[in-house]
Amino acid sequence: MAASNLYKASLVAAAFSTLGLAVPTPASLGSDLQILLHNDLYGNASARGDVVIVLGTPQTQQAAASDCSALGESLWTPPSDLNADNFLAYLAYQSGQQGGSGHWWPTRDGRGYPPSYPFGPSHGEVYFIAGSGNNGACKVITTSAQTFDMNCNAKLPALCTNTAPLSGINYTDTSARVQTQVASGNAMYTGFRDKISFRFLGIQYGTYPQRFTYSSALEPTGDVSALEFGAICRQIDGLTNVNDGSEDCLHLNIYSPYLPSPKTAKPMLKPVLFWIHGGAYINGYGSDPTWDGGNLASRGDIVVVTINYRLGDFGFLVGPNGTGLNGNYGISDQVSALQWVKANIAAFGGDPNHVTIGGQSAGAGSVRALLQSPPAGGLFAGAILESDPSPPSYSYYLSLDQEYAAQTVPILNLTGCGSSNSATEVACLRNYNASALVGLAAVANNVVVDGTYVVTPAITFNGTGHVNKVPLLMGTMRDEGGSLDTVVETTNLSLSLAKNFLPVASVIDNPSVFPLPGSGNVTLDIYNVTTRVSTDAAFYCLDVATAYAVAKTHLLPEMYYYQFNRSYQIPYWPPPPNKALCNAPPDAAHPAGNPDAEYFKCHSGDLTTIFGTWRRWGLPERDENDTPFTQFIIDSWSSWVRTWNPNPDPTLLKVRGYANTTREMALAGSLWAQVDASAPTLRKLQWPSSQEPFPEAAQCSALGLPLDYFFLPGV
């Protein structure tokens, strides 16, 4: 945050303080705040139960105790076995990463340690904790877990308890005891903390003048409650199948391990993951528990932001020529949210210059659009595309006229809004009942070339179009189509392919390329081939072709690719019968499912692992590798957000005690390599992971989607 903004935030905090608000702020405490623990993802069942709030600003022991009390806490008493699991070591590591911003041993001038004390600076930083020593001294602890007596008037950082409970889907404590306020711009945001992170929910980030217009970032003002999620955008809710939501829905949610004080000279701002949900541009929302950002923020030491954006007709409908209804309103919302983050995220502990945009499915499609969007330039510095769909409307964008004919005309017919007068059509659509509009049998959900947010029909690899050149991580599930295809009870492969709108001749004419597995269950074998074709045609082939083109042209500075070969499907999707196919089959030793057995690794089967939320959903641990694999994936994703290299730093893993990820890397025996156009490989994500050549070359070629697709004449 710029110095002027820090000063403004300090003035706002002071102004709110004069109103008698008792909720503590980093400004009122005069210290930044950090929630620190060893988050092993076991939640309340973890054997590593200790968690502290770090008061980073040096102060006397009495002042530190007072600040802990203002937070509803007290100075921390370390456990007797802390040496065995010293999560405090990370404090010294992050201080080194920040150029030595921590507080080391004070001098022997009456404020420092006793001359007889044998330890020195090699034992790390020093923090006040609970307890008193000899001759009126106070207890302190080093980041190497050594405790001793210290003059109580020395000015040191301190460690408070954090007794806030872990939040969950069905219970979250937002009482005054755990509330925290943050000032940004001319606003004061009241959020709260749980056991693992600070949470600011339902913040309005943007506004727009009327239906079917672009949004703009909202300048925050006043007292803003951020204690609960905001309204979702108008949609048929994918969790409840209910026509729900509001047009006043431009909200975001922030999960942070750290809140800086305006008085901190060098705040330890964290890299930011800006998450865009999927849902075919017709449903989904940032408050879905699947991508609750608490575990990823806590274990990864990053800030996570999730957003809502307008969907369906409200987000993408194109009007007649000359009306200004140019679609992509949902894309404009994403840019508005990025602008809000750029202006405000520093107050919540995030680095506005180190934002990675990420999304899955339609969220990945959004990231792809933002990679070539001029207004998004400079608002992010890295990108993640997870399961980026590749039907024409996702990779190649229609013109306004094409979209009007394809999706708007059917909507006009169903609403009765069709007219020879363009203004009449627009007025009718703008005034049409929102719930009824959502319930129509036709919907607008295509990104288009609107001339403002998207200016070219596709990403160009020859340098002629606009591209925001940032590091890119992308990949797919092994069996994306397993949750999307219709299960056809047939022994006729052609019928199954046709029912799923997939190419028939290119598959039937190449039986050696698309062989039936021969499992003995012909219907399942037919579905297996159908899923393979749909995965390749709708996701994989053009995604690896994108990675290959990026690597070949050096269009982006970094290019990594992955394929998930282990998954844990979200509990509410897909519906039966696909649901059973996308979950690991149970056996006597694995009643909840054996992830090492064969099953479809389906679309969306990566999300509860990437965000560490399958326990939040109440899903069981299926085998001894479920939690270590989730730890490894979170460590890899957060490594990408921090460094744009998905290989975690071994030193970081050591100081954080992340032994399972260290073990995975040793078992794997190789690092995740960038895509090399001369011999392209991907990371197969399983336990342990491995580096493998791009698969499915013959299949993609048979489908007319070869690896060099983007270099073919006429493409």
Automatic annotation (TrEMBL):
<comment type="similarity">
    <text>Belongs to the type-B carboxylesterase/lipase family.</text>
</comment>
<feature type="domain" description="Carboxylesterase type B">
    <location>
        <begin position="199"/>
        <end position="485"/>
    </location>
</feature>
<protein>
    <recommendedName>
        <fullName>Carboxylesterase type B domain-containing protein</fullName>
    </recommendedName>
</protein>
<keyword id="KW-0732">Signal</keyword>
<dbReference type="InterPro" id="IPR002018">
    <property type="entry name" value="CarbesteraseB"/>
</dbReference>
<dbReference type="GO" id="GO:0016787">
    <property type="term" value="F:hydrolase activity"/>
</dbReference>
<dbReference type="InterPro" id="IPR019826">
    <property type="entry name" value="Carboxylesterase_B_AS"/>
</dbReference>
<dbReference type="InterPro" id="IPR029058">
    <property type="entry name" value="AB_hydrolase_fold"/>
</dbReference>
<keyword id="KW-0378">Hydrolase</keyword>
<dbReference type="Pfam" id="PF00135">
    <property type="entry name" value="COesterase"/>
</dbReference>
<feature type="signal peptide">
    <location>
        <begin position="1"/>
        <end position="22"/>
    </location>
</feature>
